[in-house]
């Protein structure tokens, strides 16, 4: 009999821990390289409103995604035992709209803070979500045979692009 503990990563718990660390880095990490100049005036002028807009858009996508997922929502890459496949709503346009929403919010936060280094963290988060979604999709393919066709039709992280 084996006991599942978080560090053995049975359902993807280590992915959630890494994700939380990246969130903390984006929120509270250094925003600039030491000695780096401030953003140029034209960029600094538009970055805060653009960042707020991206943040609000990301929040709206997150709320809609969570609503479409309902009880299927989990931070783990392994689906819940009672999960069903969701392919409607925002999921008809992107396979991982929750990840997309977090990237929008994180990018908005980086622009609002005018943090060049924060943008690098957001890029790292995007790479992380790409890797985490690969693990998640292996689990979804095992559980839902129809996921293979859905995966061929719908982009992964960015609607209509990737």
Give an overview in words.
The chain has helices at 13-28, 41-69, 97-113, 116-143, 147-153. It starts with 12 loop residues before the first helix and ends in a 9-residue tail after the last helix. It has a domain at 43-153: Four Helix Bundle (Hemerythrin (Met), subunit A) (Up-down Bundle), CATH 1.20.120.1630. The protein has five helices and no strands. It is elongated. The model has no long low-confidence stretch (mean pLDDT 91). The chain has 162 residues and is an all-alpha fold. Helix content is 60%, strand content 0%. Helix 1 (13-28) packs antiparallel against helix 4 (116-143), helix 2 runs antiparallel to helix 3 and helix 3 packs antiparallel against helix 4.
Q: Key features?
A:
Four Helix Bundle (Hemerythrin (Met), subunit A); 162 residues
DSSP strand tally: 0
- Return the average pLDDT rounded to an integer: 91
Give a short account of the largest sheet. none
**SSE succession:** HHHHH
Radius of gyration: 17 Å
The helix fraction, in percent, is: 55-70%
* Low confidence ranges: none
Annotation field: number of helices: 5
Strand share of the residues? Answer: under 5%
Secondary-structure-based class equals mainly alpha
The CATH class assignment of the domain at 43-153 is: Mainly Alpha
How would you describe the shape? elongated
Architecture per CATH nomenclature, i.e. the level-2 architecture of the domain at 43-153? Up-down Bundle
CATH topology of the domain at 43-153: Four Helix Bundle (Hemerythrin (Met), subunit A)
């Amino acid at each position: 009999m084996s006991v599942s503990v978080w560090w053995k990563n049975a359902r993807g718990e280590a992915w959630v821990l890494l994700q939380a660390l990246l969130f903390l880095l984006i929120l509270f990490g250094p925003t600039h390289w030491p000695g780096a100049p401030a953003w140029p005036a034209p960029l600094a002028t538009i970055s805060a409103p653009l960042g707020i807009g991206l943040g609000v858009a990301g929040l709206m996508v997150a709320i809609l995604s969570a609503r479409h997922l309902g009880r299927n929502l989990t931070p783990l890459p392994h689906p819940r035992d009672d999960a069903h496949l969701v392919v409607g709503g925002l999921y008809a346009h992107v396979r991982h709209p929750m990840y997309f929403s977090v990237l929008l919010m994180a990018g908005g936060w980086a622009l609002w803070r005018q943090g060049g280094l924060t943008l690098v963290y957001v890029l790292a988060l995007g790479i992380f979500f790409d890797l985490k979604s690969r693990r998640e999709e292996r689990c979804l393919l095992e559980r839902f045979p129809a996921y293979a066709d859905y995966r061929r039709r719908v982009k992964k992280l960015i609607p209509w692009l990737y």
